[in-house]
Design brief:
The protein is mainly alpha-helical and 619 residues long. The protein is built from 25 helices and 4 strands. It folds into 3 domains: 176 residues, Glycosyltransferase, CATH 1.50.10.20; 262 residues, Glycosyltransferase (Alpha/alpha barrel); 161 residues, Glycosyltransferase. 55% of the residues lie in helices and 2% in strands. A hairpin with a 3-residue loop joins β3 and β4.
Length: 619
């Protein structure tokens, strides 16, 4: 049997590997936009489409009542058509067109379609079958279509977390599924969100569990107010809520981004817009800006994505992939690198964020006004600046990277880990420490050693956090990535690969080796279906650790795993010609998404990282 490392080196010299590497790289480079960075393409979302339809339908109804012409009939019809054509055989919808059906998305799509079908002349005869099939599937989950049955099922699904269950119930009520929303007693099943808390000074929000203002606050205000409008409390609480209505609406307007879309998210913006319209505030500036955002963000096929784009994340991920083998200059000219570097520098927040109160220095996932700074994107940008600077340089990129590392260090939780958006107590996903995000910070810090030197304590604590959170089997779990086929919808392969890439942890390496299927592919864990994304992530991490392995036997095992993983990628991508995306991404409220650039970027990273190995074998 040939030496595994020699066997791998032979594969890397083959025409088949060269084709995979070249074609994946060419497709990634071709995916750049006109300004030279990457925007990407998020999956269309049945959930987003359903919420947008309901907001637009209510706006048209308000216009008609006021004696004005309806404006959104065409968008509503196209959205309904898209939902009808993407319904799954069992009558449900998933978060993406490649996802399993789920209760939440099916409830939203069913209620929106039923509301449209009930409003002549927009009714479409074909919708009746679609709606009936959806209702039947909902009954399988809930036992019935009553307000009580649906509310109980949502409470069981989400527990104490009301950030998504209350908006879903509100959406269904505003779609008149429990009777006329203006008079129905079904509002009693909707928990009242305490929108009056938004009247407090922003610095007090942390004391009342409102740690992520940009996400919690718009829904808290709008959905809290619409519930209060149709089922007001009595006594001192009712008086307090009535007294804070105007002030909290001003807050809602003040935190709305210039583009009208809160977090650039269609569902959140739709929930806010439909609530205001239902309260009789269709002409309020927030509602009008929300409607403008929905109109501008619809896709040609009539659908809406979960978010407008992940431009910053996709750009830093692409740069990390193209530079994974240390040869970025082979892939991007100096002028092209300078263009990306300038664009990235422009995306850094250099003042306190107006919506979240985040300190200066961070990056958001998008270049659009609805984005807010977060740890993963800030680490990605800091890493990209080190690569694009052609080594550790001085000047503007060095200052930006230093500010980014300072921002990240200031975010660290008491347990040593880094959360996504805000330092906190682990009560919400947004302030919970996360292994893959913490590992990303460690890689960013390692790329700028001089700037990171003053954060040695934070870095040491981050390493301890990773040691403390490693699971008994040697793996780590990420927060914002998962897999629907996993029993807990988790993705240990993603989390472990990211930590191994940062630390070279030996138990993590062993876990990845054990997770590989006989055919060479990787799923979220052993025994589950493989994807291009997960396989490429594992291959990159394993290829990265080979140079540091002193144990010959372990090195041989890792080389053999990389060999089999690359062979699997060759087959799965038809030799680098096709890159179907898998829904491994998790958005707010654990909504699934896929991104067309992920399989491309991750495959390029795996190939570029593996290309370092032939040189190693000659040393």
């Amino acid at each position: 049997m040939p030496d595994p490392m020699a066997h791998l080196v032979s594969l890397l010299a083959s025409n088949a590997f060269d084709t995979l590497r070249r074609q994946s790289r060419e497709q990634l480079l071709a995916a750049r936009n006109a300004t030279g960075h990457w925007t990407g393409q998020l999956s269309s979302s049945a959930l987003s489409t359903a919420t947008a339809i309901n907001a637009l339908r209510l706006a048209d109804a308000a216009s008609t009542t006021a004696g004005q012409p309806a404006s959104f009939g065409s968008l509503i019809r196209r959205g309904c058509d898209w939902l009808a054509t993407t319904q799954l055989p069992d009558g449900s919808w998933g978060d993406t067109t490649a996802s399993q059906g789920n209760l939440s998305t099916t409830l939203l799509a069913w209620s929106s379609l039923a509301a449209v079908a009930a409003g002549k002349p927009l009714a479409q005869p074909e919708l009746a079958i679609t709606i009936d099939r959806a209702a039947s599937r909902i009954c399988d989950w809930t036992g019935g279509l009553s307000a009580e049955a649906i509310a109980a099922a949502l409470a069981a699904a989400y527990g104490r977390d009301r950030t998504f269950s209350v908006p879903i119930l509100t959406h269904i009520l505003l779609a008149d599924r429990f009777g006329d929303h203006r008079t129905t007693a079904a509002w009693r099943v909707v928990p009242q969100l305490p929108f009056e808390l938004a009247a407090l000074p922003q610095q007090w929000f942390r004391l009342v569990d409102m740690q992520v203002v940009s996400y919690a606050l718009p829904a808290l205000i709008a959905i809290g107010q619409v519930r209060h409008a149709f089922r007001p409390a009595v006594g001192p609480v009712g008086w307090l809520r009535q007294a804070t209505k105007a002030r909290t609406l001003r807050t809602l307007e003040a935190i709305q981004p210039d583009g009208g879309g809160y977090l650039e998210a269609t569902p959140l913006t739709s929930f806010v817009t439909m609530s205001l319209v239902a309260m009789g505030l269709a002409n309020h500036p927030v509602a009008q800006a929300g409607l403008a955002f929905l109109t501008a963000s619809v896709r040609p096929d009539g659908s809406w994505p979960i978010d407008t784009n992940l431009a910053t994340w996709n750009t830093t991920t692409a740069i990390a992939a193209l530079s994974a083998g240390g040869r970025l200059a082979d892939n991007l000219s100096a002028a092209e690198q300078a263009s990306v570097r300038m664009w990235l520098l422009e995306q850094q927040w250099r003042q306190v964020h107006p919506y979240t109160g985040a300190a200066p220095g961070g990056w958001a996932w998008t270049d659009l006004p609805g984005g807010v700074p977060d740890a993963d994107d800030t680490s990605g940008a800091v890493l990209a600046l080190a690569t694009l600077a052609d080594g550790i340089g001085t000047g503007e990129q060095s200052a930006a990277a230093t500010a980014g590392l300072d921002w990240l260090a200031g975010l660290a939780n008491r347990d040593g880990g880094l959360p996504t958006f805000c330092r906190g107590w682990g009560r919400l996903p947004f302030d919970t420490s996360c292994p893959d995000i913490t590992a990303h910070f460690l890689r960013a810090a390692a790329a700028w050693p001089a700037a990171a030197d003053r954060h040695r304590k934070v870095i040491a604590q981050a390493h301890r956090y990773l040691a403390d959170t490693q699971r008994g089997d040697g793996s780590w779990l990420p927060l914002w990535f998962g897999n629907e086929t996993h029993p807990q919808q988790a993705n240990p392969t993603y989390g472990t690969a990211k930590v191994v890439l940062a630390t070279g942890d030996s138990r993590g390496i062993d876990w990845l080796l054990g997770a590989q299927a006989a055919d060479g592919g990787f799923g979220p864990t052993a025994g589950l279906p493989a994807s291009i994304e997960e396989t490429a992530l594992a291959v990159e991490a394993l290829a990265a650790v080979i140079p540091g392995l002193a144990d010959g036997q372990r090195s041989a095992r890792v080389a053999a795993a990389v060999y089999r993983g690359i062979e699997w990628l060759m087959a799965a991508t038809a030799g680098g010609s096709q890159f179907p995306a898998a829904p491994i991404g998790l958005y707010f409220a654990k909504l699934w998404y896929f991104e067309d650039l992920y399989p491309l970027s991750f495959t390029v990273a795996a190939c570029e990282r593996a290309c370092q190995l032939p040189a190693l074998s000659r040393v």
